[in-house]
Amino acid sequence: MIFKNVTSPSELEGAFAVRRDVFIIEQGIAEDEEYDGLDRECLHFVALSGAQVVGTARVRFLSRESAKIERMAVLKYFRRKGIGTRILSTIEEELKSRICTEAVLHAQMTAVPFYLSCGFTETGSTFYEANIEHIKMQKIFGC
């Protein structure tokens, strides 16, 4: 399994395919909500099994020190195998290399235990995004 920044159009297409499978097909999120026009300003990360993209996330910088992790998704067959954790580790390494001191995300409530296990903390009340209950979470990076 390889975890990396997206470096080719085919990897980005694979990331979009994972998002389509997980968010649009599996969770019923509207396509125009999933593809929100922000992808061009984001860094994209993938997990590759051979040539197949099986997991993805994107990162949008909110400031020089803060980034938001978005669109984290792993194909159903590949879940609970440590792939999400490795994607987050890859993102964290990249953010630290850019002198970023924190990452935030909006976690679906079903994913909160996963993010807690990866060092994130809840930082607010629940809210709805795409008709799914979420909570804001944050991770501060140590020096």
Summarize the structure.
The protein is 30% helix and 38% strand. The chain has 143 residues and is of the alpha+beta class.
Structure description:
With 143 residues, the chain is α+β, with helices and mostly antiparallel strands. It has one domain (2-140): Gcn5-related N-acetyltransferase (GNAT) (Aminopeptidase, 3-Layer(aba) Sandwich). It is built from four helices and seven strands, in the order βααβββαβαββ. The protein has a seven-stranded mixed beta sheet, sandwiched between helices. β3 (52-61) and β4 form a beta hairpin. The longest helix is centred in the N-terminal third of the chain and has 18 residues, at 9-26. It starts with a strand and ends with a strand.
Protein topology:
Elements: E1 2-5, H1 9-26, H2 31-34, E2 43-49, E3 52-61, E4 66-74, H3 83-97, E5 102-108, H4 112-117, E6 121-129, E7 132-140
Parallel strand pairs: 4-5
Antiparallel strand pairs: 1-2, 2-3, 3-4, 5-7, 6-7
**Which whole number gives the mean pLDDT?**
93
Q: Can you tell me the CATH architecture?
A: 3-Layer(aba) Sandwich
- Strand-residue fraction? 35-45%
Shape: globular
According to DSSP, the number of beta strands is 7
CATH class descriptor name: Alpha Beta
Low confidence ranges? none
Strand order of the largest sheet: 1-2-3-4-5-7-6
Helix content: 25-40%
Order of helices and strands: EHHEEEHEHEE
Task: Report, as a whole number of angstroms, the end-to-end distance.
Answer: 28 Å
> Could you describe the largest sheet, including whether it forms a barrel?
7 strands, mixed
Number of domains: 1
CATH superfamily: Gcn5-related N-acetyltransferase (GNAT)
